[in-house]
TrEMBL record:
Signal recorded as keyword: yes
Domain RagB/SusD: 268-555
Gene Ontology CC annotation, any one: cell outer membrane
Ranges where the SusD-like N-terminal domain occurs: 90-220
Any one Pfam family match given in the protein's UniProt record, by short name: SusD-like_3
Protein location: Cell outer membrane
Keyword tRNA-binding: no
Originating species: Mucilaginibacter mali
UniProt lineage: Bacteria, Pseudomonadati, Bacteroidota, Sphingobacteriia, Sphingobacteriales
Superkingdom assignment: Bacteria
Protein name, per record: RagB/SusD family nutrient uptake outer membrane protein
SUPFAM superfamilies noted in UniProt: TPR-like
Matching PROSITE patterns: PROKAR_LIPOPROTEIN
Main subcellular location of this protein, as a coarse class: membrane
């Protein structure tokens, strides 16, 4: 049941046939032409495949880096000459990006490609499919996916062009953010009556509750996007999902399993998730490549038929196992400021972190062989090439040994072992041939719906369904920690809960901005307080092909 999504047949070639503009006087020779395809519900589903491929294509790479490495949640330092990559990571972390930053450019390309793919497929189905419920539902699903892409663009880039007609040749200028907001809202509201309710058959596909989730997130951030608070509307959208009775908060015993490579339709918190398959090249999900220390491999050591009982999941080294090609790079870590939110020893969410001395699953310490100089580049003794063996120990990120203003951690083992690593999306023990992973990635979870409603009430929205902001926050906490329930609530309590709950799930930049913390000082020299950086610049690559675009303020 896990990969139902991959049963959708991608009809990219057929769509290309329909949209071809070459030799239009030549009779088509393909059997599937616009007058016969797509006609049935199954054909409509297959024809819609490209939009889901487009969403999956760069969500777990470019989109993740834009959202997480521009916040205090994650940082990817450099190690001498490793991971400089045109300073694209440094600029994200220190809020010094320009319109030429590679992540800024690839993010724009990723999101506009989604919109273009949706526009193209909508055009094909409008022109070819017969009228009826199947067509209405298919178009509603595509418009919901396009609305999701526009929400992502509006959140990241602010004033973006609205281009909803496939084949249009006129250049679109930026639409004010508030008008983009209104467009997305109207599209989702119009789609909801035709969307399906959630079931195993709709896993990875847009449903009514994805539409309500996007609306809830928009309304929660409406004061930022439009200048007008919409907290009651946020609560109403959340209530649509809550009242469905289709979702529930996972207990502590299964919280971590939500993110295993075996996750899928059975996860009762997943309102909308992106299915990933390690065997496909249409979108990579290889968090472990970045997050595991390079002295740890991706093969998983565990006892029993499943890893569900594992309390301290550690990965096996690849050396000698035939898995050298899946050895991780190990550069990504969290900041000390973000890790400080994990201060409850009874919270199951602490187990998503690798910290301190590391052991194999059988309790054997992970030992690393190097040299005195290889371990410490500042070694001054008389035997720099002598063998040095040590137990792997992950230390918290502080200032670099190369200086308080350095983004470079160094070129030795001490540098590579700096920083606490996240394994929430557990390295894929089911896949031993590549660094790609089978872990599906949630975009909206039910706990997010509950915490959004709590925050909206706390910020002034009217309580509903007998719930209070405090009771809602405690309903999540009671499934995550055995510590006592909160007896009072502050806005910082809600923020801290969101930090713990949604680590590595691409929401932290959005949260930092809404809670007024995006300009904080943290990590490796992040001191920039420019508020205009709450949105990214229009990339140079986009400006070069569309002269009608206007650069965002400050850039």
């Amino acid at each position: 049941m896990k990969k139902i999504f991959f049963g959708i047949v991608s009809m990219l070639a057929l769509v290309a046939i329909f949209s071809a503009c070459h030799k239009i006087d030549t009779p088509p020779t393909a059997e599937l032409t616009p007058d016969v395809y797509p006609q049935t519900a199954a054909q409509l589903t297959s024809a819609s495949g490209p939009i889901y491929i487009s969403l999956r294509s760069d969500f777990a790479v470019t989109y993740w880096f834009l959202q997480s490495c521009s916040s205090d949640e994650a940082v990817l330092p450099i190690f001498a000459t490793d991971w400089i990559d045109g300073n694209k990571y440094l600029e994200l972390h220190r809020h010094t990006w320009t319109k030429d930053n590679a992540w800024v450019a690839s993010g724009w390309t990723y999101m506009t490609n989604m919109i273009g793919t949706a526009n193209q497929t909508i055009s094909v189905i409008k022109a070819s499919a017969p009228a009826g419920d199947a067509k209405n539902t298919s178009l509603a699903e595509l418009k919901t996916m396009r609305a999701l892409a526009y929400f992502m663009m509006m959140d990241c880039y602010g004033n973006v062009p609205l281009d909803t007609l496939y084949g249009a040749t006129d250049l679109k200028t930026n639409t004010p953010r508030a008008k983009v907001f209104t467009y997305i809202e109207s599209e989702l509201k119009a789609a909801i009556p035709y969307l399906k309710t959630a079931s195993s058959a709709t896993y990875g596909l847009p449903t009514k509750y994805l539409a309500y989730s996007i609306l809830a997130k928009m309304y929660l951030n409406a004061a930022i996007y439009t200048g007008t608070a919409r907290y009651d509307d946020c609560i109403a959208a959340c209530d649509q999902i809550i009242n469905s009775g289709l979702y529930a908060i996972e207990p502590a015993s299964t919280y971590l399993q939500m993110f295993y490579p075996t996750n899928g339709p059975s996860q009762k918190e997943f309102v909308f998730a992106i299915p990933f398959d390690a065997s496909t090249t249409n979108g990579y999900m290889f968090y472990a490549r970045y997050d595991l220390n390079r002295n740890q491999g991706i093969r998983y050591l565990y006892s029993g038929s499943t890893p569900g009982g594992i309390t301290d999941p550690i990965m096996n080294q690849s050396s000698g196992s035939g898995l050298n090609n899946v050895k991780p790079s190990g550069p990504r870590m969290t900041t000390t400021e973000f890790y400080a939110y994990f201060n409850d020893p009874n919270d199951v969410r602490n187990k998503q972190w690798l910290t301190g001395p590391q052991y194999w699953q059988d309790g054997t310490p992970i030992m690393v062989n190097t040299t005195n100089l290889g371990y410490n580049q500042f070694y001054t003794g008389g035997s720099p090439s002598a063998s040095y063996t040590y137990q792997l120990n992950l230390t918290p990120l502080g200032t670099s040994r190369l200086g308080a203003t350095s983004y470079d951690l160094g070129k030795d083992e001490i540098a590579w072992n700096t920083g606490y690593r996240n394994i929430k999306f557990l390295p894929d023990y089911t896949n031993t041939i590549s660094r790609n992973q089978n872990n599906d990635v949630p975009v909206f979870r039910y706990s997010d719906i509950v915490l959004m409603k709590a925050e909206a009430i706390f910020r002034g929205g009217a309580p509903t369904l007998g719930a209070t902001a405090l009771s809602l926050v405690n309903s999540v906490r009671s499934n995550r920690t055995t510590s006592a329930a909160l007896t009072a609530l502050t806005i910082d309590d809600i923020y801290a809960e969101r930090c713990r709950e949604f680590t590595w799930e691409t929401w932290h930049r959005n949260d930092m901005i809404r809670f007024g913390k995006f300009e904080n000082t943290y990590g490796l020299g992040k001191t920039n307080t420019d508020t205009y950086r709450r949105i990214f610049p229009i990339p140079s690559t986009a400006m070069a092909v569309n002269s009608a675009l206007v650069q965002n303020p400050g850039y």
